[in-house]
Design goal:
It is built from four helices and no strands. The chain has one domain (about 1-95). By secondary structure, the chain is mainly α. Helices cover about 90% and strands about 0% of the residues. The relative contact order is 0.16. The two termini are about 35 Å apart.
């Protein structure tokens, strides 16, 4: 098993040495980070929805009328996209430029 891990590490270092490898590695890490933040944001949205569900129906209808749920969805989606692209940029382009 240690031989396989060492071979995989050597392969990743070889691929990571080239510009294309750094970009692909950065994009892969960006996708993984984006998925992790997406899961966290979906839990946040469900938590906020459960909190809103516990209030008086008049107020929850007002939240729906003002588009609170849509705004919350847009904000969390924008944060997930920003986090994923910044992570990919940091790992791919910033290291490739050096």
């Amino acid at each position: 098993m240690p031989v396989l891990v060492a071979a995989l590490g050597r392969l990743l270092l070889w691929v990571g040495g080239s510009l294309i490898g750094k970009i692909l590695l950065g994009l892969g890490i960006g996708v993984v980070a984006s998925k992790g933040v997406d899961v966290m944001m979906s839990h946040l949205q469900s938590y906020v929805s459960s909190l809103i569900g516990g209030i008086d129906p008049i107020y929850s209808q007002a939240f729906d009328a003002f588009g609170f749920n849509v705004a919350l969805n847009m904000l969390t989606s924008a944060y997930v996209a920003r986090f994923g692209t910044q992570t990919a940029y940091r790992f791919a382009l910033a290291k490739a430029a050096s």
